[in-house]
C-alpha cells in the first residue's frame, strides 16, 4: 500500500483565526486578551509566540504556546472547516518562513514479496498465434 503525505499550510491570519475559534470553544481559555501579533518559531520544537493586550490592564504582554497546543488548535480548525484529517495518520507541525503547516502522514504497509520464478512472456495476444 502506498504511503501518503499532505502538508496543510496556514497563513498568519488563518493561525490567528484558529486561535480565536479554539479559545471561544475551550472551557479553559487559551488567550488572555486580544492578539497583537502571532509569530511561529522553530527552535527545536515548534512554538507560537503571541503578543497580547491584557484584558484587564490593557498593557501588552507576551505568551508562548507549545507545539502540542498549536497542533490541537490546527486540528480543531481543520475539523471545523471540513478539511479531512485521517485519524490513523501521524501528525506534526512545522514552520515555513511566516507560515505554519500541519503535516499528515499515513505510512503504507510494507509489501512482502516472495521471489518470483522466471517466466517467459509471449508477446502475442491471447488466442492469436505468433508468427514464426
Q: Output the number of helix runs.
A: 2
Mean pLDDT: 84
CATH topology of the domain at 11-85: SH3 type barrels
Largest sheet strand order:
1-6-5
| CATH class term of the domain at 11-85 | Mainly Beta
Amount of helix: 10-25%
The count of DSSP E runs of length 2 or more, i.e. the number of strands, is 6
**What string gives the helices and strands in order?**
EHEEEHEE
Q: β content, as a range?
A: 35-45%
Going by CATH, the architecture of the domain at 11-85 would be: Roll
Residue ranges: pLDDT <50 for 5 or more in a row?
A: 116-125
Shape: elongated
Largest sheet: 3 strands, antiparallel
Q: Radius of gyration from the CA trace?
A: 25 Å
Characterise the protein shown here.
The chain is of the alpha+beta class and 132 residues long. The chain has a domain at 11-85: SH3 type barrels. Helices cover 21% and strands 37% of the residues. It has helices at residues 12-25, 67-80, and strands spanning 4-10, 33-43, 45-54, 60-65, 90-96, 99-106. The strands form 2 sheets. Strands 1-6-5 form a 3-stranded antiparallel sheet. Strands 2-3-4 form a 3-stranded antiparallel sheet. Mean pLDDT is 84; it is low at 116-125.
Set out the fold topology:
Elements: E1 4-10, H1 12-25, E2 33-43, E3 45-54, E4 60-65, H2 67-80, E5 90-96, E6 99-106
Antiparallel strand pairs: 1-6, 2-3, 3-4, 5-6
Helix pairs in contact: 1-2
Describe this structure in a few short sentences:
By secondary structure, the chain is α+β, with helices and mostly antiparallel strands.
Task: Supply the key terms.
132 residues; alpha+beta; SH3 type barrels; three-stranded antiparallel beta sheet; 2 helices
Amino acid at each position: 500500500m502506498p504511503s501518503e503525505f499532505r502538508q496543510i499550510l496556514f497563513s498568519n491570519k488563518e493561525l490567528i483565526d484558529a486561535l480565536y475559534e479554539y479559545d471561544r470553544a475551550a472551557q479553559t481559555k487559551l488567550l488572555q486578551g486580544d492578539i497583537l501579533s502571532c509569530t511561529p518559531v522553530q527552535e527545536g520544537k515548534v512554538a507560537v509566540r503571541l503578543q497580547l493586550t491584557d484584558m484587564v490592564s490593557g498593557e501588552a504582554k507576551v505568551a508562548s504556546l507549545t507545539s502540542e497546543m498549536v497542533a490541537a488548535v490546527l486540528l480543531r480548525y481543520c475539523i471545523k472547516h471540513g478539511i479531512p484529517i485521517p485519524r490513523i495518520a501521524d501528525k506534526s507541525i512545522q514552520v515555513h518562513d511566516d507560515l505554519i503547516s500541519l503535516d499528515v502522514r499515513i505510512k503504507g504497509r510494507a509489501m512482502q514479496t516472495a521471489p518470483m520464478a522466471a517466466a517467459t512472456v509471449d508477446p502475442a495476444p491471447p488466442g492469436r498465434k505468433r508468427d514464426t
